[in-house]
Write a structure and sequence with these properties.
Strand content: over 45%
Structural class: mainly beta
Helix content: under 10%
Radius of gyration: 15 Å
Number of strands: 11
Largest sheet: 7 strands, mixed
């Protein structure tokens, strides 16, 4: 089973920066897409940014121009560089990945979530 482990959350003042990292581990993984979602208290979990194996990126309108997502295909990591942070960026950030994983004898799909990392932006 593919496991995702996030790191890099924390407390930062408005206007500051944070970098989140997520590492995928498992048995012969071939991810199609890796992404970051976030969930604020009382709100639904929303897509922040995603990146495909081919390098295509997609961003929520609220973070365009401030956040940058990048994936290292060889290391199976996805990073989210967050600049010009705002208090409304405060949330738990979750890493997500989907693709294919080698099982005992064949490849099968996977769809995994990390446990989340807290990002708090003070005003």
């Amino acid at each position: 089973q593919v496991q995702l482990v996030e790191s890099g959350g924390g407390l930062v003042q408005a206007g500051g920066s944070l970098r989140l990292s997520c590492a995928a581990s498992g048995n012969m993984i071939s991810p199609n897409t890796m992404a970051w979602y976030r969930q604020a208290p009382g709100a639904q979990r929303d897509l922040v940014a995603s990146v495909t194996i081919g390098g295509r990126t997609d961003y929520a309108d609220s973070v365009k121009g401030r956040f940058t997502i990048s994936m290292d295909n060889a290391k199976l990591t996805v990073d989210l560089q967050m600049n010009s942070l705002k208090p409304e960026d405060t949330a738990i950030y979750y890493c997500h990945a989907e693709g294919f994983e080698r099982g005992s004898s064949t490849w099968g799909p996977f769809n995994s979530w990390g446990r989340g990392t807290q990002v708090t932006v003070s005003s």
